[in-house]
Fold these 4 entries.
Entry 1:
Amino acid sequence: MALLAALINLDGRPHYVQSGWFQISLANLIVVLVMIAVFALAVTLKFPGHEEPVAQEEVAGDE
Amino acid sequence: MSSGAERPTWTSHLRRQVASMPPEKLLPDTQPVYVASWIYVFGALTIGAFIVVLLSGAVIAMAGPSWWHHSSFGHFINSTHLWSTEFFFAFMVIHLWGKFFMAAWRGRRRLTWVTGAVAFLISIPIAFTGYLSQQNFDSQWIGGQAKDGINATGAGAFFNVLNFGQMLLWHAVLLPLFVGLLIAGHVILVRRRGVVPPLPGKGGA
């Protein structure tokens, strides 16, 4: 954490990205972009350990 | 005394509702094949983050206002509360995006969608009242700015952002209670109606 704090000056003035009337802090923009990236990965990446279909019927084996 | 035909009372209605949700349906061991996807994970992650928010908030509440500024353990718990909230919102919004593009209100799941959406909307004032409860210059500045906006809506008479006690109770008791109940209802509805399947593909699957 100390290393991260050394890399990023948390005491400085915040940076903003502005386009016309639209303004967003750089920190918030990074969070939004990371969320979009996580969403895209969640939709595209294959879920591990479920190559074979999990049939609900297979569970009922007591009868 | 029991009779063959149940009278239409609220107790009989509640009994039928509870009986329709046996433990094996409430906590199933298996899910449909399509649930094996990362996009279906974010609802559970949201609940996990919410539990961490509640636990860290409970520690803060037990120690009383402002102690989190004066001890290293207080700083740690304060940061845990902040970052679990950040993750709570991030997971919840990704969950919302996934369900929106999946049209998750299909198949008699409208109420499931609505409870989730309302829980999201109520979570926003929980975060805002949290900013007002920080007990530092930041919260004073936010309160000073917010009062004008709230007063402009006419709600300032009964929702006073400069009243720390009122904001702390909204933040720590009332709003989390609403959201907790909504999340519980949301999960019960998911169990009752089932997890929404993906939209049919181009081939009409």
Entry 2:
Amino acid sequence: MISIKDLHASVDGTEILKGIDLEVKPGEVHAVMGPNGSGKSTLANVLAGRDEYKVTGGSVSYNDKDLLEMAPEDRAREGLFLAFQYPVEIPGVSNANFLKAAVNAIRQHNGEDALDAMDFLTMVKERLQLVEMDQKLLHRSVNEGFSGGEKKRNEIFQMAVLEPTLGILDETDSGLDIDALKIVANGVNKLRSPERSFIIVTHYQRLLDYIVPDFVHVLANGRIVKSGGKELALYLEKNGYDNLMNGNGKA
Amino acid sequence: MKNDKNKNREVCDSYIRDFQGFEAQLNGQSSTPFHKERVKAISTFAELGFPTTRQEKWKYTNIASLIKEKFELASKKQINARDLGPYLFRGLEENRLVFVNGFFSTELSTFSVPAGVVIKDLNAAHDSHSELIEKHLAKHLKIAEQPFAALNTAFAQNGAFIYVPRNVVVEKPLHILYISDPDGKPFHNHPRNLIILEQSSQMSLIESHHGAKDDVYFNNFVTEVVVERNASLDHIKIQDESKGAYHFSATQAKVARDARFKSTGVDLGGSISRNDINIEFTGENAEARLLGFYYATGTQLMDNHTFIDHAVPHCDSNELFKGFLDDKSHGVFNGAVLVRPDAQKTNAFQQNQAILISKDATIDAKPELEIFADDVLCSHGATIGEIQDEHLFYLRSRGIGEEMAKAMLHIAFANDIFERIKIEAVREKLENEIITRFGEKS
């Protein structure tokens, strides 16, 4: 699915990622945890193709293609999806128009016909239920006036509509109350399949009670310092990141 | 400097000579009372000459290229119904008046209106509605300091004449098409519209202007609007002239007690375009809403000048202009508001927002508020911005191509204007038009 090798990246001249190696196979769910400033969000944004993040070394192969060579829209068309940590509000662009343009751009890329208005609406209504969102939201501007929880749910809703093969969740759980967290987790779980993989970037172990990962990686100071199974998340919850980074976590 | 002056003089003289020729072919019409206005107007124009950037109202709008160009009086041209296709709005039932090179086309014009409503070309109205003409034509717009309006009045012959009697609501919008095809012979042309809405009447008017490619011609419009008590006029003007055209347009609207006038201007074409919109409130509780959208590329110059005369209390004016300026284009917005001493409880809002797509594009925006009453709410603002990278990235990260994403964000920026266009077919066509143009650019 995706193979990240010795990835280095910097923002405004400061190196944030200092050699990341990560391999994700179809159907796997990988959690990337770490303290603030460890480079978690940078990793997510680099994979999505954000301009401000400059890749200074290493490679990322995605379905045997060079991901780093692709424009952001091409990554999305090839099945990569980033659920943003801070989804932006875009006044004047309705959710419906936005999603329709996205769906049809991806369909066109896959050699499929564009969905007509009726088929699109039927599909979208069905996916809305997945994250328990109101249909009225379709006619509102993208994220405009949404609460934090609504914005995050909207990200998962978009993911459900676009059906990516790799979903990257960038701190989707941060700032969510338990009810919203359950809705988001439930949405993701329903999207899990043998063909679809996830990279779940999170600060808190709590999310992983609801989305159970196959692997957990700890990112610190721009490198993955430890990898393990889901029990690693529990260990971190109990002992904190400091303990691990001080070298006491070697097990 | 001196040479410029001589050139200006010389060119003015050529228009004055054209006027003599025009007068000679008027036959019967030269005996109408209006003809006296024409004669007065040409001498006003002769005194004023074309404006220069030394004049405050033309400070940012250099029309030297217009003065350099040689124009002759427009001549008649036939086009087919089929040629109108690209200018029509899909699925919209409309009344239609068509002018080609300023000449009225009876064959292409179609309308069916409620009893008493008059839609015809001004030329014909001189005979059939001489009383209304005498009462209103050239009675509202002051030409003393407006050389283009003076020139228009001198040459005014064709144009739309619209009269809606008391209490009549015209359901179907009226679409007035002005199509210019100079056939390689640059012309000057001065259409004149007169629109009269009597008490409690209502109508929607779509004026659209079309030309092709880089054709050079000079269109100089004047529209006088009289909105009587409690009447309502929704006026949309789409300027899509050729890239070589000069488009000048002055609208003078008198808005009476409880009446509403809404003007939506969309500028896309023309080498130089200048809109003057003047509103005069003549009774309390009247409302004027002026919306404007412009998209300039290349070296296009687009200028909007507005003047709102709050002469009486309790009136509302609301102006919102938004535009995109690309390449080396130049935008001008000048919004003058006068609140006279008696005009208490006035609300006057004005906003101009431009997005500079290229670093070589420029905008000159100037509010001019003169307020002589103390119990009023007035505000103005001007912003210059650009498309936000994070918005663009968000759309692209969902698979939407860069061009499409930009077009969507541009439309979103213009949405404040477009969402206020009540006729859906018009809104859709305009949105598609903008998306197409952005696509062609990138």
Entry 3:
Amino acid sequence: MEYQRPRIALGLLMAVALAPMAMGQHGPRGPQGPAGAGPKGRAFQEVLDRLPAPVKLMFARFGKQRYSGQRVVEFRLDGERYKNIENLIVDGLRSRIEFAAGSSWYGQVIVDNRNRRTHFFPDRNEIFVGVSPRDESIMRLRQFLQSSANGRLKVTTDNGPDIVGRKTTLLQVADPNGNPVQRVWIENTTGIQLKREIFDRAGSKIGAFEFTRLNLDPKISDEDFVINRRGAKVVDSQDRLRAAAREAGITPIALTQDSGALLQNSRAVKIGDRNVLTQTYILEGRRLTLFQFKGNIDMKRLARQEKGLIKTYRWEQGGYSLVLVGEMMPDRLAQLAKFAK
Amino acid sequence: MKEEQNLITKLKGEMALSAEESTELDALLDSSSSIGNVIRDLPHEEPNLVWRSQLNEKLSVLAEKPKRRIGLWKWASGVVVVGAASLAVWSVVNTRTPVIATTNTTIADSTNFEDQLMQSHVESAAAMDVSSAYALDVVSSKETSYTGEEEWSTSDLESL
Amino acid sequence: MSQYLGVMGLQIPKRLDSETEQALIHQCRKRNFDAFGKVVDAYQARVLGFVKRMVRNPEEALDVTQEVFIKAFTAFERFDGRCSLKTWLFRIAYNLCVDRSRKAERSLTEVSIEASDPESDPLEFADERWSPIEMLMTDELQLVVEEALRTMSPKLKTVLLLHDAEELAYEEIASTVGVPVGTVKSRLFLARAHMKAHIEEYRRGEVQ
């Protein structure tokens, strides 16, 4: 089954082009969002309407499901590969994840309690307190469906294999040449994502998870969503930013809260021979990365790396080069850059 | 204005230009470089993996054609097979050993700086899409990682 | 319970620096399959991008792109290094596109630049609205640019793509296409003018 609309009428494109500021700012908070509020919302809804019930369930039930289970998660980051075995309990917007033996993050615990996240790190007896992620991962899928409306991506579905004994539907997003971008295996009766794979432009799998156990009727209590560790040091995203900046030897420049962007993590990364302070933000369901470093950058080369929805904006401030990368229009990135302090 | 139209007529007719006109054309090309940027920014799509696999098949046939040093080829094949097997074993062993990263990670300098910035963004977004955790900055520390001495006493797993 | 199979860690194609490229060229001349694979990794997307815009049918573009690399592989011994590897590959690609076009006994649709009214198509670029930020590619703009390329004559399109997309020098394009450098410049200017006129229409919302 393939749902790819022919190239969009240019007249419609003109209408979109006349309101460039609206692009990248619609940011509905719910996973389905105001489907009728604008061409993109309509495009999403039109594509969704033609997809089978499990896909609709996935969007409709996101943040409302109740289950426990175990899943294996693998991803690549900054040249390293991670593998975790997560034991998780999900109750709507509340969740608890424990990282089992054999995990890169063995012993850590994450509890999301609606808007508040606590993340315990046993090796340093530290609890990170921040804002819970909301619907970013499902928002990405929503964006893909929108993009399929203008032919930039292809969305197909098929019957998937049984996973943890449950029937699944495979939702595949691919580029126009058929190279997979993401694959999601959705449990047919609940809309739970049982397996997901994410690919980069080169076709390499850069992130994946798959459930190995699932219980749709778990015993859950309020205590599951509490972490009490006596003597643990409590830190927040600003503490982590300062620590990462110290490690990188960089005076940090960050997006202020007025920008609306929420800082999620900060890392000191060595790229080539340069120390780079990397900050990841969430804004309107999209992920943004702010890179800060000394020295110049080849903008032509950087621009060539802009693929699909990902755009960049570069400026200089405080003797540093800053590059903001995200799935937003360049003028929106430029606006955000004004909030860098 | 008339001179400009004359120049344009000449350009369309691909006629020879005078020295002054050539200079003017160079200036016009300089001033139109922003259009060039639009073309430069056009995306390039990778051919799909099936296409590549077909190409590889065709190339491998061509690669073998002129080489008929059977003895050496057999020996080399043996080495390749043994090497591949070793690599496969190594990969499996390596896969089973989770990576514990230090906070200040070094990204191998195998591509240029700009490519790596973009790759870093793509990877961290993917990591957060699949991993539940976004505090990727504190995945571990340079200190000794957790050894499991303090097991959690909660009975979460009973519900599985 | 299903078993989770880890399949991470595939290699990403890398951009070639000149030192690596020289080493690969050396190996490719000996018809080294692996070395040539790296050349394909580095250039397949760009060559396909060029070919796709030169021929009409996407399937044909994929075939031609394969042919480019097969020809390059078999002819590598004759690659003398007087031009860059990239220029050489694009030269092969250009020649194959022209061959295809001739063999099919059809010429690519051509909307002559002469068809536009010089008064309404002022060929003027000193316009501050064309700032770099304005020029950043959006999805919609990309479609308009592709449409403009489709309606552009092959001779203008070739020069525009080779110069602006692939950054080949005037001299390299001249030797590839077989025309003087001055003609390359003229065609480049006319191609940009055609593109600009099309984008202007888009900006005014006039393209239907």
Entry 4:
Amino acid sequence: MIFTLKIWRQKNASDKGGLVTYKAEDISPDSSFFEMLDQLNQQLIAKGEDPVAFDHDCREGICGTCSLYINGRPHGPLKGTTTCQLHMRSFRNGETIYVEPWRCGAFPVIKDLIVDRSAFDKIIQAGGYVSVNSGGIPDANTIPVPKPDADAAFDAAACIGCGACVASCPNASAMLFVGAKVSHLALLPQGRVEAEHRVQKMVATMDSLGFGNCSNTYACEAECPKEIAVTNIARMNREFLAAKIFAEKEKQISFTL
Amino acid sequence: MDRSERRTLSSITGKVIMALAGLFLVVFLLVHLGINLLLMADDGGRAFTGAATFMATNPVIRLFEVVLFGGFLIHMMFGVGVSIRNRRSRPVRYQHKSESETSPLSRYMLHSGIIVFIFLALHLIDFYFIKVGLVAPPAGVERHDFYHRSLVLFSDKGYSAVYLVGFLFLGFHLNHAVQAAFQTIGMNHNKYTAGIKVFSMLYAIIVAGGFMTIPLWFIFFR
């Protein structure tokens, strides 16, 4: 197969960058998108040019490292698929393919197609955890969890934090990501203990990082490779409102370790 | 701490205020439509004028007029505020246009909102400002009541066209807005969300269609 690639090239964070056109020839329809890029990079290296930088790790759709905004859609044209699980047979022979990095003020481009997604880490650090004092290992099933709750929590926990929701959102909003993280803990008894505190901290951090507001276009749900539902956004809104209105006033506890 | 971190209202609170103000306007539109449909009654405007007089004199309604203006103001202020923040959140835009599937017309809420706002401004000049005496009634209006004012305006095809376009865009706005408001206030459930979406579309069709029927009726049946 033959493709015309228009790839975003940007030397570093301060470079302006722009699209560069490449020809990819002799591509197997069974090669993955990344194998196609690997092939292109080999050619660039042979010519003494700088290869295209892109994020990838597990290449089996579970780590959330890969990104790429392909022809106007994060992770390309397939539903419920990460870029690493996308194959060239999903494109027409001779097609022109646009490859861009995620675009969001909170995800600055580091080089070419690689963006800094540590904004998501900051949101998790703000409350995406359960505090457990050390001690003996608890027996399995000591805390009963209703099966539907466990299932819903697991569906939310399937989020791999790739950022496709932010990339696809017309407003670059992170509400689906934060909604999934808030939901998967709020649905379980272990997470209820800190639920009120968690949702407020995570939303405040999300706001402070400069993500946009959700305007319910549901592009995030359509593009999420793990098909996380927007029900999680509504759940976060409920949790947030309930916490703002009904939460007991917290004492200012601060300590340093 | 940067400027956005010192925000007094969180993004969710702002959106919820906007959604609640919007839902209040949704109720108001039904009342307004109900009264306007009386224009088509074949009684020389008696029923319509009666309703208009009640709305203009009842003390509870007078109080709610202030609440209504507040509702519009809050909805528009938060709508514009949210949109400005949303544009800022993506300083470098994509080269390829988005191909992501979205809820119908949900990307164009600010655009449809601005068109409705322009129509609302014209509407206030045509009716409310004349009523309160800010604008002198144009020549050709014998009496200052809303019924005769409507007759004059709807006999003008140009005005009727503007009116139809205004309500068409209000319909587009409402189709997404009503169901989105429920999502924003946290009401999303597999039991009733499908119902809310159908209700949202039906409401948009009934309200926009209902208002649009009136000039069409004046053009074709009078």
